[in-house]
Write a structure and sequence with these properties.
This protein has 431 residues and is α+β, with helices and mostly antiparallel strands. The chain folds into four domains: 47 residues; 105 residues, Immunoglobulins (Immunoglobulin-like); 39 residues, no CATH class; 198 residues, von Willebrand factor, type A domain (Rossmann fold), CATH 3.40.50. The chain is 36% helix and 29% strand. The chain contains twelve helices and 22 strands. Strands 19-18-15-20-21-22 form a six-stranded mixed β-sheet, with helices on both faces. The chain has a five-stranded antiparallel β-sheet with strand order 1-11-10-5-7.
Length: 431
């Protein structure tokens, strides 16, 4: 029980009488009577409020998306014969944030109401949503009754599965997501898929004039991309990938992009696999296709986190060389800031290229870019930032000169840029 504002204000009366007894001793008995009366009323009110009147039931998705607002619903039910103004909150796990709690709602007599809040997790893995804590006034309003309703709801925080659901919805409606619509690629003219209405950006040579004449509107031929190819994702989980931008680590940005491209590729009939590594191999999911391919990639990486260790690129490429025999698009997500690691990557890229097609994804440090362009930075900071930017540009040029594909992109633009590059590689038949 917590004293309410009404009880605190009532307690002022005997305090005033106590101060007055210093001047008039005849007020001693009224003061004691006021104390006793308030104590009896407060005790009676506490006795009336001893029985809990509220229950709570939580409805939460079993899978949450990292960095996204995930809807959680609370069904709050009252057994009281009076109206209750209720405040309810939940025990969240440590790496979850919420701006909607405590939730406040009004419960009619013997009725229920629904409260909603949005949970934003910042770390992947298995977690538990804990007990509910409910507060409401006692019958006479002198106490705030606090009730703890035990409940434990296990949840798993995955990479950004909400983006996958949005893409799937658009795909079913025959619409491309806006982020990749401009770079949509189609296959060669020998791989006819279907006829459809002409869209802005279609090549004029794809127009089917016979179908256009029959239907009295412009009809285009659509060609499918070659399927049954292999994508192998290599995720660097070393110390440089622990850096955070836009509330997520670079590793999380890479994992989100991996999930999205895995779904796009598997939906197009390709095989997808995952290898996460740091100073050794952390997780491996062999290339597989079908409806569950993206799910297997998620399960292999949803509880992985980057470590403060040096990255062993050689172990990762050796593992790929031994396990992946079919020619594949090897997508490496990493961050490089020193000459030694850059030289090793150049050597390994040259070694893998005869069998596989490597695509190196370098995540740009947006803070470094801002320092280079920012007029308010001191000359020393701008000079150091410019040196790092020059090093990265030189590494990109060297990799391209060796024949490797490179995607140098900011984390916020990683997913659409990666999907566009994948579609371009497929359309150019580089695999």
């Amino acid at each position: 029980m917590i004293p309410s504002r009404a009880l605190v204000l009532l307690a002022i009366l005997p305090l005033a009488l106590a101060a007055a007894t210093l001047a008039d001793r005849t007020l001693l008995l009224p003061m004691l009577a006021a104390d006793l009366g308030i104590a009896l009323v407060a005790a009676l009110d506490a006795l009336l409020a001893r029985r809990p009147l509220v229950t709570v039931k939580r409805h939460a998705p079993a899978v949450l998306s990292i960095g996204r607002p995930n809807l959680v619903t609370l069904e709050v039910r009252s057994s009281a014969r009076r109206r209750l103004d209720v405040s309810v909150t939940d025990d969240l796990f440590d790496t979850a944030a919420c701006d909607d709690l405590p939730a406040r709602l009004t419960l009619p007599p013997r009725s229920f109401a629904t409260a909603r809040y949005h949970l934003r997790p910042t770390r992947r893995g298995a977690h538990v949503l804990g007990d509910h804590h409910v507060r409401y006034l006692s019958p006479l309003g002198l106490w705030i009754r606090q009730v703890t309703v035990p409940e434990a709801t296990p949840v798993k925080v995955y990479p950004d599965v909400q983006a996958v659901r949005a893409y799937e919805l658009m795909a079913r409606q025959d619409r491309d997501p806006a982020a990749i619509k401009s770079s949509r690629r189609r296959g060669g003219e020998s791989e006819f898929e279907r006829l459809r209405e002409y869209r802005r950006g279609d090549e004029f040579r794809s127009i089917d004039w016979k179908a256009t004449a029959r239907r009295q509107k412009i009809i285009s031929r659509e060609y499918q991309l070659e399927s049954n190819q292999t994508l192998m994702f290599l995720l660097d989980a070393g110390r440089l990938m622990t850096a955070r931008t836009a509330g997520l680590s670079l590793f999380d940005h890479a994992l989100n992009a991996t999930l999205m491209l895995s779904h796009v590729a598997a939906r197009g009939g390709d095989l997808v696999g995952l290898l996460a590594f740091a100073d050794g191999i952390k997780s491996y999911a062999p290339p597989a296709g079908g409806a569950g391919a993206a799910r297997r990639v998620i399960q292999a990486g949803y509880d992985l986190h980057p470590d403060l260790v040096e990255t062993d690129y050689a172990a990762a490429f050796e593992h790929v060389g031994l396990r992946v025999r079919k020619r594949s698009l090897v997508v490496l997500f990493t961050q490089v800031v020193d000459e030694v690691a850059a030289a090793e990557l150049l050597r390994l890229m040259r070694g893998v290229m005869p069998r596989h097609l490597p695509l190196m994804v370098i995540l740009r440090d947006v803070e470094i870019d801002a320092m280079v362009e920012g007029p308010d930075e001191g000359p020393y900071l701008r000079g150091a930032a410019a040196e790092l930017a020059t090093f990265r540009d030189r590494l990109v040029r060297d990799l391209k000169r060796q024949g490797a594909l490179v995607l140098d992109v900011a984390p916020a633009q990683l997913t659409p840029a990666l999907i566009n590059r994948y579609l371009e590689i497929k359309a150019r038949h580089l695999l």
